[in-house]
Amino acid sequence: xxxxxxxxxxxxxxxxxxxxxxxxxxxxxxxxxxxxxxxxxxxxxxxxxxxxxxxxxxxxxxxxxxxxxxxxxxxxxxxxxxxxxxxxxxxxxxxxxxxxxxxxxxxxxxxxxxxxxxxxxxxxxxxxxxxxxxxxxxxxxxxxxxxxxxxxxxxxxxxxxxxxxxxxxxxxxxxxxxxxxxxxxxxxxxxxxxxxxxxxxxxxxxxxxxxxxxxxxxxxxxxxxxxxxxxxxxxxxxxxxxxxxxxxxxxxxxxxxxxxxxxxxxxxxxxxxxxxxxxxxxx
Length: 283
Description:
Elements: H1 2-7, H2 13-24, H3 26-29, H4 34-41, H5 45-54, H6 60-71, H7 77-88, H8 93-111, H9 114-125, E1 130-134, H10 138-152, E2 156-158, H11 164-170, E3 179-183, H12 190-201, E4 205-210, E5 223-226, E6 230-232, E7 235-237, H13 239-255, H14 257-273
Parallel strand pairs: 1-2, 1-3, 3-4, 4-5
Antiparallel strand pairs: 6-7
């Protein structure tokens, strides 16, 4: 916003209209197309594109992305509902949400740092102990990762988040040979960030799964895995982060293939013996 205010004096009349709208309605403008923003303000789409270039961006999509990164963690649940209603309008919700999720996976694949991914895999494979933390909506992602890692390793600790002090009590013995995996997306969890900083201060290797290198989680992580998240109304859309976790689990499993095969061989016997899964009779 400071960048807009600083340039306001040299803007044309049409550009000033765009700048004022963005400053006053940043929560909606960040998710508008160039065409929609132009219609709302009363200028042409090409004027909006030139406005973004005038600010120093490569194009309108880059300006839009910068606005989204800036405000995503500031939106209340009510603002999220208003933004999503404005974005979707009367369109088919199913089509809109699934298409957006597909786009987020594509963007994640293009932008994810491969070196960071492989570094995270190596750190996990050689860890004395693996700590995993994700709270609120990210708790589902943490539980998914913990479910599979607990099959692959004997040294997995899913941190209990019922109380603030409990998290740090469970991290009391974390050491440099350990790995801490923190998962959080806008709006970022202060508890997860604090636990990551605590682990980093004690020399543990810290892995972050978050939405951007600008995320506060990235500042205290040695390996940053980025996955594009989105707001589907008041709901956090975490399809792309889940896909990254799928890849992480598979890569770790392949890194210890012999042990993984032996583990699942034993598990199949247990599942059969105790009737864990329903057996379908051949017709």
